[in-house]
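Notes, p. 3: input format for complexes.
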Amino acid sequence: MKPVLMCCNVSVDFDGFYALQGADLKVYPHEVRFLIGPNGAGKTTLLDVICGKTRASNGKVLFYSHDITDMPEHKIVRLGISRKFQSPSIFHQLTVWENMELALKQDRGLFAVLQAKMSEVDRDMIITLLQRIELLDYADQKAGSLSHGQKQWLEIGMQLIQFPQLLLLDEPIAGMSAAERERTGELIHEIARDCAVVIVEHDMDFVRRFSKQVTVMHEGKVLCEGTMEDIQQNEKVVEIYLGREEKAC
Ligand SMILES: Nc1ncnc2c1ncn2[C@@H]1O[C@H](COP(=O)(O)OP(=O)(O)OP(=O)(O)O)[C@@H](O)[C@H]1O
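Output follows (249 residues plus adenosine-5'-triphosphate):
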């Protein structure tokens, strides 16, 4: 099977400080890949390079056969890579439905989108996605009135409406209740039926519960990959990351 994403020997130089130092990553269709590692390991920087927010100073990023290393962010989005940042960037004064409408027609202005008549197909698509993110009953509510977890789901829904083939999530469960975390884990696996997902996450209980393949990053490189069971046996991973977690408990 061809990988959706290949990062080959990617380095990022921030004025002499190397946040990434030859990072390699392959992600396959329908995969849910967790990226873990200590603070400063380069996880967010790697997501930033993949979505075009940060430029690699060396190495290549391939999305299927496209070399996207030097592509501007908006073109990468159009190719099918969607990035959700830690804090939700939704419009609090608009309803859940209007947020979804806007996400559907991002290239048009707010006024034009809200005035335009929707096609049946678009309407059905929004309904299906709102069902998936469990917000159909909240469609007419202002997004600002949603719980923190629901706001995160709304933003995930707004990413999904563009039908990405790769979704990048940065700590999606931060600040969520236990029930919201559980639902988010299930949602991520549902999403992976249609698109690969790469998730940066620090919550090891969540990673244990919902991961298959985990990539451990350290000092700007990939240290190792495998199932959570595999990497828990890795002495270096325990030393630099998981050991600290146990001590903190
Ligand atoms: N714009 C920047 N300029 C300079 N240094 C940066 C910049 N962005 C990130 N860094 C540094 O690069 C390193 C990697 O940061 P990054 O945020 O990718 O790590 P991370 O693994 O995501 O950490 P965390 O788990 O704390 O979010 C850190 O030392 C960080 O301070």
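The beta strands are 5-14, 17-27, 32-36, 58-63, 66-67, 81-84, 166-170, 196-200, 213-218, 221-226.
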